[in-house]
Each structure stands twice: as structure tokens, then as C-alpha cells.
Amino acid sequence: MQLLIFYGFGFFALFSGIAMIMSRQPVTSALLMVVNMFCLAGLYAQLGAHLIAVLQVMVYAGAIMVLVLFVIMFLNLREKAGIVSKHGVMMQALGIAALGFVITAIIAKLDMAKLPAAKAPAADFGSVAAIGRVLFTDYLLPFEITSVLLLAAIVGAVVLAKRKV
Amino acid sequence: MFDYTYLPAPNLIPSIVEMMLKIVFIFSMNMGVFAPLLGWVERKQSALMQDRIGANRAEIFGFTVFGLLHTVTDAIKLLTKEDFIPRGADRPLHYLAPFIAVVPSLVAFAVIPFGGKYMLWGHEVNLVIADLNVGMLYVFAVASLATYGAVIAGWASNNSWSMLGSMRVGAQMLSYEVAMGLTLVGIFMVYGSLQLTTIGMAQENFFHWGIFLQPLGFILFIACALAENKRTPFDMPEAESELIAGYFTEYSGLKFAMFWMAEFLEMVTIAAVLVALFFGGWHIPFITHQGLIAAMGYLFGANFGAIAAMIIHVAVFWLKVVVWIMILMLIRWSLPRFRFDQVMKLGWKIVLPLALANIFITGLVLLAVR
Questions:
Q1: Model's pTM, two decimal places?
Q2: What domain range includes position A158?
């Protein structure tokens, strides 16, 4: 059952990812990316990381992608005949094939026995309390630095927006 | 790590049956009771408020049943109307948008408890479809997806009015989502949990209801919820006097009905969240959860007593929800509309700072009390 759900989400994530790149319509691409993020959230949820899954949907699918869609609609980007030369397509296909080859080679070289054994997660793994505790103890410094970074981004956005006034 | 058995183990069957029953119950409550009936309630309530009679002409053999038959005639009308797709529209997206609008308000109900926990023949029944640890965050996540239905509808219609409507939806929903999350942080701090069942149990004592512990949070949340629902006074995206009908201008027939339904179901969800967070969920004031189960157990025996208590609690929950739907409709028919810049100003300059102040004050009080 779990495996079926995993394959379902995995298939849709891959499918929407590929379709997103292939789509010529910017809005369709954005929506396919939302589908992709939703599938990833499903995979997180299946791993027991409910908070991450919900945040993935809330922040990426719910907020950031709406903004992306908003910008696409604002600029009214409709379908355009792309300047895609045959040469470019060939190069891309070659590149993807080469990358696939490298990844396959790495996986083949991996010695599974040497990897650390999988540990069973703690009972409260993925719960809000567990993540909060870790965030405010072990990872306090990165957490606070992130907030400084976000503050800098907000100030930067305000400066950029206010320049024209 | 994975179990390769595709069939559920026999000891899981009661839980699966329970899950199925709960899903069917919530689904039929929403689609079978609220979605069709709220249109009638809205008509009759607005008529009452404006000293009119309201819909009363549809009849079968002379029986009008308080205008209830208008629900049926509406359904027939919407079913038989031409399903029109404008030229130049993005056909698949135009088709998909109403579905994206309806689904979030239905699935958001998964984490809202409509009753407590009851022991029936040694099997514990927890009256919530999915008792997630992240609880309310799930509702936020699903609600944030509701934006897409309206935004895509406007874009796919290839109509400038619709487009303007969907731009407004995007801006409005995004602004109020931020504020809505912050208005409820106070509630989470007070009850120490995001889980709606835990919050529900914590409101057993009448004086611990969210409305008494978080009055400011309640007012701010209701403002945000109204804005998310896109009804008057926040109906900027539809704005009949400026944008024809906003993002669903180009929709007819059943697809139009789906946007209509989405709006009503959102209202039910908002009312349910309000009840679960601020108005004691399924609890009856001054009667404890176990107290009612014990009293009913005394009357009907342990198992049937638990069932009786369960029915009473579920009825109380839905009664509160209905009362809240009425109040939300009352607001809709009493207040004039905002201008769009006023909506934005209210969201970013009033609700958001007040929500932050609410979090700060709640923190101070919690520190002082402990």
C-alpha cells in the first residue's frame, strides 16, 4: 500500500516536472510546478515529516507559486514561438544523456554495505514540537542567521520598490 | 521499511470502516446538506433582513415548502444551461479551474474535529478524519491552494474583466493568508498545540473557550477569514459594479455553480474552524466531555450511552456551525463594500500589526501567568 502511494506520487512528480519544462505556456508551466511541489509534499508526508509536507504546500505551492503566477499574468506572458534550433535540442539531449550516464555510474559504484545503516526515527519524529525543539537548541544559530537574511531581503525589497516614488 | 502487503490486516478493519464512515459523513454534510441549502438560507435571510418575502414561487402541486423548491429549480436551471467557453480561452485550464476551487474547501475538513473520543465496544472512535499533529497548518496549506481556482479561472477566460478579478484575488488572498496565520499564533500559544483535537479538548471548561482567551485574535481572524472567503465586504475579486462578475464572468451552467458552491463550502469551513478554535468545538458549556458520556452511559448502558453522547456532541458542533454561518451571512448583508486599496490597507497596515501585537501580548501574559 505504502509502496503504491510512493510510486503514484513519484510518477506524478516526475511527470509534472518533465511536463513543466516541456510546456510552452508559462502559466501551464507554473501550474505543473505546483503539482510537482504537491507530489513532493505527499512524499514528505509519507516519510512521516508532516510539518515539512504542510510547509511545502503552504509556502511553496500556496504563496511563492501564486506570486510567480501573478507576475506571469501581470506581464501577460502568452505562448510564444520559441527560438529553439535543432542544434540546441541535440546539445540538450546529449547533455541529459551524459548526466544520466554519470549518475548511473555513481549509483553502480556505490557500495551499499558501506553506507550507515538506516536508523528508526524517534517516536515524535516530524511533529511540530520535535522540529521546534531542534530548531531552537541545536540549530539556533543558523535559524537566527536565516532571520537576519530575511530581514535584509525585506529591506532590500522596500528600497527597490520605493526608488520610483 | 515498506510493507509489501496490499491488503489491510484484519485488526485494522474497524479503523478503516470508521474512517470511511467519517469521510462519508463529512462529505454528505457538505455536499448534501450545506452546498444546496445555503443558497436558500441566504435568500431567505437576506429577505428577512431587508423586509422582503424572498423566493417563494417554485411549487409542486401548489406546495412551495417555504421556497425550498427553488433549490431544485436552481439545480435544474444550472444543469441544463449551455456550458459556454469563450473564444481564445485556455480550454483545459478553463475546465479545471472550478474543480480546483471546490476541492480545497472540502479537504480542509479532514483535520477539524466534529466530536470527541468515544469508546464503542472496546474500539476507540475519534471523531476527526485525520488527527494530524500539524493540525491547523494543514488547513492553512489547503486554503492557500484555493487561490489557484480563482486565479486560473480569470486567466483562462481570456477576458480583461476576469483577468482583473483574478489579479485582485491573487493580491487579496496572499495578503490575508499572511495575516491569518499570525492571528492564530496566539491561540496556538495559549493551548500549546496546533492539533485541533487537543485545542478542542482544552476548551472543555466554558471559560477556556478561545473567544475568552483570545478576543483580539478572534476579531482579527474573522476579518481575515471573510477576506479569504471573497464575499462582501471583501468581494473585490467579483465586484459586480466594476468587473461584471470578476474571475467567473465567463463561466456558465454547472461550472458557475461550482464556484458558487466553493464559496458556500468555504463559508462552512470557516464557521467550523471558528467553532473548533474559539467556541469550544463540540463541547456543551458547563458539561464536561466525560460527564456527558457518563450520564448517557447511566441512562442507556456503556456502549449505547457513548453513541448517544456522540450524537449529542456532533449535533452541538453542527448547531454552532450553523449559527456561525448565519452570523457570516449577517455580516455579508449588513456591511458595504470596501475599496480595493482599503482592503489592502486593512490587511497590511491594521490586521498584520495588530496580530503581531497580539502575539507579543499573549507571550507576556503567558510568561506572567506561569
A1: 0.82
A2: 127-165
